[in-house]
Write a structure and sequence with these properties.
The complex is a heterodimer. By secondary structure, chain A is mainly beta. In chain A, 0% of the residues lie in helices and 53% in strands. Chain A has strands at 5-7, 10-13, 19-24, 31-38, 42-50, 53-56, 65-71, 74-79, 88-95, 106-107, 111-115. Chain B is mostly beta strands. The radius of gyration of chain B is 14 Å and the shape is globular. The model of chain B has no long low-confidence stretch (mean pLDDT 93). Chain B has strands at residues 3-5, 10-14, 19-21, 24-26, 33-38, 44-50, 56-58, 64-68, 73-78, 87-97, 100-105, 109-114. In chain B, the strands form 3 sheets. In chain B, strands 2, 5, 6, 10, 11 and 12 form a 6-stranded mixed β-sheet that branches. In chain B, strands 3-9-8-7 form a 4-stranded antiparallel β-sheet, with no helix packed on it. Chain B starts with a strand and ends with a strand. Helices cover 0% and strands 56% of the residues of chain B. Classes of the chains: A mainly beta, B mainly beta.
Chain lengths: 116, 115
């Protein structure tokens, strides 16, 4: 199993540009989590999906951020327009969530985003 | 509301000495507790979890954690530290949102093991 796959690994863009981050879940997992990590704020949960349905998007900072899960194995996180304060490492994590239970999450390698 | 606290920003240990990374939690009901490790420029990796059963949980890379219900703590331990253990360690607790479970992470503790 290849684990969680994220692309790109690094992204440098200019303020105002659209950024799309991609994530492929581990086969058989049914939940996906998008996190953002910065020195100032630590690890923040942005949004998570269960069976392709967004469950909790309260961590999405503002309307410039959107996330989709078009199928059971793939998700995108889009920032439009991007701003310098969006610079961070973005992780996605995959898990198998069962009713009433909670399994460990498997993290991808992250996308380091720099907005100039 | 569920929460987790890691009271130390950094822990310094000499190689070969035992190490402890502290974590306290606040939950309603039975706690599900996790430890993750993050090496530089990598994603978080699962170390161990406590759901139920023995209070001493053994995990990867020789780490273990002790669940203490009366002190609401879940400290991470290792009998003999290695320089390669130097990393950022996160404690997490199960939280609830929209009827589903999620992980609530602490702020992280940086472990530095020096030769």
């Amino acid at each position: 199993d290849a684990g969680v796959i994220q692309s790109p690994r690094h992204e440098v863009t200019e303020m105002g540009q659209e950024v799309t981050l991609r994530c492929k879940l581990i086969s058989g997992h049914n939940s996906l989590f998008w996190y953002r990590q910065t020195m100032m704020r630590g690890l923040e949960l942005l949004i998570y999906f269960n069976n392709n349905v967004p469950i909790d998007d309260s961590g999405m900072p503002e309307d410039r951020f959107s996330a989709k899960m078009p199928n059971a194995s793939f998700s995108t996180l889009k920032i439009q327009p991007s701003e310098p304060r969006d610079s961070a490492v973005y992780f996605c994590a995959s898990s198998l969530l069962l009713a009433g239970g909670l399994n460990e999450q498997f993290f991808g390698p992250g996308t380091r985003l720099t907005v100039l | 509301a569920q929460s987790v606290a890691q009271p130390e920003d950094q822990v310094n240990v000499a190689e070969g000495n035992p190490l402890t990374v502290k974590c306290t939690y606040s939950v309603s009901g039975n706690p599900y507790l996790f430890w993750y490790v993050q090496y530089p420029n990598r994603g978080l990796q699962f170390l161990l979890k406590y759901i139920t059963g023995d209070n001493l949980v053994k995990g990867s890379y020789g780490f273990e954690a002790e669940f203490n219900k009366s002190q609401t703590s879940f400290h991470l331990k290792k009998p003999s530290a290695l320089v390669s253990d130097s990393a950022l360690y996160f404690c997490a607790v199960r939280g609830f949102s929209g009827g589903y479970n999620k992980l609530i992470f602490g702020a992280g503790t940086r472990l530095a093991v020096h030769p």
